[in-house]
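Example 4.3 (complexes with small molecules)
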Amino acid sequence: MKTLKDINFNNRKALIRVDFNVPLNEKFEVTDNTRIIAAKPSIEKILNDGGSVILMSHLGRPKGKEEQFSLKHVVPELEKVLGHKVTFVDDCIGEKVKKAVAGLNPGDILLLENLRFYPEEKKGDEKFAKALADLGADYYINDAFGTAHRAHASTSVIARFFDKDHKAPGLLLEKEINSIRKALDEGKKPVTAIIGGAKVSSKIGVIENLLNKVDNLIIVGGMAYTFLKTLGNKIGDSIVEDDKLDLAKRILSEAKENGINLILPIDLVIADKFSNDAQTQIVDAQNTPEGWQGLDIGPKTQKLLDKVIQDSKTIIWNGPAGVFEFDKFATGTEQIGLSIGRASEKGAYSLVGGGDSVAAVKKLGLTDKISYISTGGGALLEMLEGKTLPGIVALSE
Ligand code: AMP
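Answer. The structure with adenosine monophosphate bound is encoded below.
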């Protein structure tokens, strides 16, 4: 597979699939520009070579053409981040767009309208993909890691229409893949993964893959209660997936067979209701009474996890340790972030991904300490599951 660095874009036009699926406020202003900043290196490389850039992305989940999801809202922030004028065209295929592409001069940037205004995008429609491929670009670059796990028209199918010398991953996509591999496949031991979040069911694949890769597997958040229950602990009204109790048991015994240290919470912050103004108490993990539910890990667990994290050379974190949206139950998640920050300062390689964990790291001002913060949610999870992503496969076919 070619990389972006192998290509000289002088006098060439590159169609880049970026991930500008950014949050907007009620005035349609971008409230978090992380994804725009992440796309900057590829855009700059092409412009510096003397090429021009056509940017295409989705934004939100429009049902047809809905003004509120127009990518025109992104233009001011994009121009600010790039320090460069951006021309917007209010469609992503067809004669109007072809004309705009034909008129591009070296150094120009053109942004196309939301790909998902066409339902064909998500369906991976070949005709639609061909229409994108026929806009007049010389190269197709995929830099949208956030959607690389989808076989959509612009993320995967379009690659069929460019030969292998005329398509490549962007610098962000390349960095994401390399960073995840560095942690998952080439991580210095001890390797510790911290997996949290609401449900076991959404992360079974990740947990199973990690069972062959890590030395310590820490399971926190709502999903921990299914494991605690299968071990015979009283979990009161805590979130649980009763149909996953056998699976949890199997994972626990597999971890044992593989010699993996699987760590569950040893104490909990429990609440009498699912609310920020609930009554709370701290109990050992065996003893959540009926009428109470665990909404965070307790102080003993935080200390235990800190010790494991400080002793690790590679750390992977995805998913919160509690209902961190409520301040009262955010401490466990924040302490994990701080522990990882400290371990990273001492030289551990740390990879953090997933909206909630990344939000925690940002809130704590730890972004510079973490070795790599992934821009992917679902795509990161699929990489952690050991899957090859369609967006990446398509570039090498
Ligand atoms: P996920 O999307 O699977 O990563 O899950 C994230 C969600 O898990 C967050 O919205 C948290 O509020 C929720 N969560 C974490 N811990 C718990 C818990 N103990 N009980 C209920 N929900 C939880």
